[in-house]
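Reviewers asked in the last cycle whether our approach scales beyond single polypeptides. To address this, we selected a multi-component target totalling 459 residues and predicted its structure end to end. The input consisted of the following lines:
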Amino acid sequence: MPPGEPLLRPDWVVNNLDVIGERLAEHLGMTATAVGVGFVISFVLALLIRRRRALHATVVGAAGILYAIPSLALFAFLIPFSGISFVTAEIALVSYTLLILVRNILLGLDSVPSDVLEAADGMGYTSRQRLWRVELPIALPIIVAGLRIATVTTIGLVTVTSLIGQGGLGYLIVVAGINAFFPTAIYVGALLSVALAVAADALLLAVQRRLTPWSAARGETS
Amino acid sequence: MTLIEELGAWLADPAHWTGPDGLLTRLLEHIALSGACLAMAVAIALPIGLWIGHTGRGAAAVIRAANIGQALPTLGVIGIILPLTANIEPYGFDLIPSIVALVALAIPPIVTNTYAGLRQVDPEAIEAGRGMGMRELQLLGLVEVPLALPSVLAGLRISAVQVVATATLAAVLGAGGLGRLIIDGIAQQDDAQLFIGALLVAILAIATELSFAGLQRLAISPGVRGRRAVRESAADA
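The resulting structure, written as structure tokens, was:
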């Protein structure tokens, strides 16, 4: 760092609000894409596992191995195939959401009491109706808990994608900040990414409380 | 050249193995950095976890802080520390920010799992110990810790794997370790180098996971072994 360079230059922040806003939007977009795609894949996988329990060990084992691979390493594995690109970043980001999401969707669906299922069957629900009208609403708090962990993790990992030319706020930290010896950009990127993680977590929790007012009353979530 | 041929050519060069920038040096740097950070994290986190687990005092605040700590992006922490230490010679720029970030990353799982382990100890076992005239430290060392050991070691295992995986990022600031191969590979568009680096980090992370799982099995007394280890960190609950 150049001697005498202040940690934060307010004038730079004010003059570069458009750049900061763009990176913030990029960060949000990459996170939403990864968690969204990850959720759809996880949901399908979880339903398949519920139909054929034998798949459980295979799917969770494979997701666990993906999860254990360090993020920079996973990006690096993909570069020879999909290059230094948005797609490489997203494949890795989606991979990391699978373990958390599949596990929590299954935990949520398994948490539905069997007498509730029997009642639904007794009322003549088809299995699809039972899934959408009974099981998913009851499973929602646990599923959203998984979404919260996946989202917060992804927001952190998006910063790492700055090393392969993407990065959202990570671009401010690494390219505009560390590489250019410019503390202001580092702080703006780092603080915004932390704030984004905290805000996303709180937002998802609020949405879940809104959707399942009964669970908050019983103190099921925290 | 296909990737396989590139990998073969890269590995055929002895300088890539044993040179000062060779992969053996990088591997040792990676293990040394991870080991040192894990040791520092244990030295900080274990006493905190034992204290809040044994006394119950301040537990809620500490666990909340640990959960927030777990949400911090490591690259963000490295960035926040860097300007503060950059002018400290000799390691302020390339090493200290990564060490701080890795220690901070490793602390929460150890604290939360140690706490959860101690809280799960059957209160009757503690009562029995107290009835036998044990002092607080004896209770902790002879009753609570042995019974909580599966959970304590589970926390250590989570931290160790995360540190090994994340130590890759130390290379961003120019430190060594296996991340060097990946970062340099990206910069030099050398697919073989970055692929080898990625492969070694992944193997090291999985090897760490397996060796801590082995340690867990060895260190747990047969009487306790029947109990299910709490492998998930408290934050996941």
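The longest helix of chain A spans residues 17-51. We regard this as preliminary and will revisit it once experimental data from Aim 1 are available.
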